[in-house]
Amino acid sequence: MVGSLTIGIRAIPRQGFESRKGRHKQSAECQQLGEGPAGNAKVSLTQARIDMSELDEDSDGFLQPHEMEFYIRGLIPNLAQLRDIPAAFVQMYCRIAAHKFFFFCDPHKRGKACIKKVLLSNCLQELMELHQEREEEVTDTEQAKNWFSLTSAQLICEMFLALDKDTNGTLSKQELREYADGTLTDIFIERVFDEHVWRGKIGGGNAREMDFESFLDFVLALENKDTPEGLTYLFRCLDLHGRGFLTTADIHTLFRDVHQKWIEGENYELCIEDVRDEIWDMVKPANPLRIKLADLLACKQGGTVASMLIDVCGFWAHDNRENLLQEEEEPQEEA
Ligand SMILES: [Ca+2]
Ligand SMILES: [Ca+2]
């Protein structure tokens, strides 16, 4: 269970790996996945399946987090872009990398990911991109777009440590509010804690604190707003009354916080009702009185809508995008 991993980032037990050393064969074919002719990719997908099946202790077709971490650890020597990974960071790297597989392949948090699903996931492809030698001119920002890059994993750790002001290994609501320069609304942070942070051992069971695993979910959701998994995470936060749909009143409540940050940022005045109508136009829900998760997924702009409702920067980006689009369209009038 992901929820049971309530240990802080500084207290990660060294277990699960050493005892299994030697079981996981590193194969030459592994090097082919993610590059070269399609034939090779097919061979290495087969190899990945074999390697994962070997790690599947109880042969139920699912991998547990420590098994997935072990699989990733076995790949590292073959991944050109991870050549310089500091030995002391390997375990943390594997934990961060494996988490993405679980975010997408274990959406119900059963603590096991279906091997078939893992093999077909975009995550595996993204991880295998690290086989390719890094191009020199690629910037850190560019590299960090790949969750599995060393840059990205290190940034996430740094981010967590920087947010954890009282260094207790977990994040309070107050600490999480500083995420992304504090552009997320307070109501959203509240809802994240309501829906996605479980009462742990830390804090005496009363004050809820976000552990590192929950933080990874949070970051993955925000970075993958347009995926069903990311949007599902966010929708649960937007669905203020847990009814499975959003009403105009919910949108109003959510956007009021964005509006407040917007005004604090000395932007021009906004009419909340106009934004509400705009969101309705973007989503065009099947039931005109209720926006459901299915509507957000179907309208293909669910990620943008979610951004507009939780993040003043997300709203600003949307607002500016409209202007940029207009500028792009104008010169084409002649054509
Ligand atoms: Ca298993
Ligand atoms: Ca803390």
TrEMBL record:
Its main location: cytoplasm. One of its GO terms (cellular component) is cytoplasm. Residues 151-186 form the EF-hand domain. The keyword Ion transport does not apply. InterPro entries: EF-hand-dom_pair (IPR011992), EF_Hand_1_Ca_BS (IPR018247), EF_hand_dom (IPR002048), PPP2R3C (IPR039865). Residues 17-39 are annotated as: Disordered. Keywords: Calcium, Cytoplasm. It is found in: Cytoplasm. This is Serine/threonine-protein phosphatase 2A regulatory subunit B'' subunit TON2. It comes from Abeliophyllum distichum. The lineage of its organism: Eukaryota, Viridiplantae, Streptophyta, Embryophyta, Tracheophyta.
